[in-house]
Design brief:
single chain; alpha/beta; Rossmann fold; two-stranded antiparallel sheet; 6 helices; 36% helix; 27% strand; globular
């Protein structure tokens, strides 16, 4: 087994983006592709490592970018402004996400008929918007995601299966927001499931998260359980 990776450029409108593709060259032929959507911080080593872990499972992982090539920054104020701009213009965000999904399908290692997406925090919102858009995708996994509806997909049916991996004490997605999303998904005809982890805050899968006062903290058991749930979900989609 040898995990390979390469940078892949793609465009939406007049903006160029750059993602990192990961695959195991020991697997012959094409295989399912899984898009990985990033947190507020943009595409970082965290998402790239998730793409590599997906490659170890026999998928093609694609850690995408929705901010634009050359915009990576460690300044959270800068990243928050970029995220807030896209949260305020969900149509623009959805176009960028669908461009990334189309790019994943174009890669020679990927079976175009078998794609999924997973995302973390802001990325959880992103993959839910892919599903909400009605995209032809097998399933999406939102990990400690944000549940705010986009406002431009009301009445659309969701064909993708949806897995929500949620810390119950996440201040960015309250129990009321969880119930509202469940009602939204049910109305859209989605096949959805929710795994709620008690005594668990936002960003529970990120070992670097350590700010309980802000509602963010790593939780080893929730991280382990959520990854196991993701593995089972993807296997159910594609096997």
């Amino acid at each position: 087994m040898s995990i390979q990776s390469r940078l892949v450029e793609y465009a939406e409108g007049d903006i160029t983006f750059e993602g990192r593709l990961a695959w195991d060259d020991a697997y012959p032929g094409t295989r399912p592709g899984v898009l990985v959507a990033h947190t507020i911080a943009g595409r970082t080593a965290f998402e790239e490592q998730k793409a590599a872990k997906l490659a170890e499972l026999g998928y093609v992982g694609f850690a995408i970018d929705v901010y634009g090539r050359g915009t990576r920054s460690a300044d959270m104020a800068v990243n928050r402004a970029r995220m807030d701009m896209l949260r305020a213009d969900r149509s623009a965000l959805q176009r960028r996400l669908l461009a990334a999904l189309a790019t994943l399908r174009e890669q020679s290692e990927v079976d175009q008929s078998k794609t999924a997406a997973m995302g973390f925090c802001f990325g959880g919102l992103c993959v839910l918007d892919i599903a909400r858009s009605g995209a032809d995708i097998a399933g999406v996994v939102s990990v400690h995601g944000i549940f705010t509806p986009p406002g431009n997909t009301t009445g659309r049916k969701i064909s993708a299966k949806v897995l929500l991996l949620h810390g119950w004490d996440d201040p960015f997605a309250t129990p009321e927001a969880v119930v509202s999303l469940a009602q939204e998904l049910t109305a859209a005809g989605a096949d959805w499931q929710l795994h709620g982890y008690g005594h668990t805050m936002h960003a529970f899968s990120n070992p670097a998260a350590s700010d309980p006062q802000a509602g963010k903290a790593y939780n080893e058991s929730a991280d382990r359980r959520s990854w196991a749930a993701t593995r089972y979900f993807l296997a159910e989609l594609f096997n």
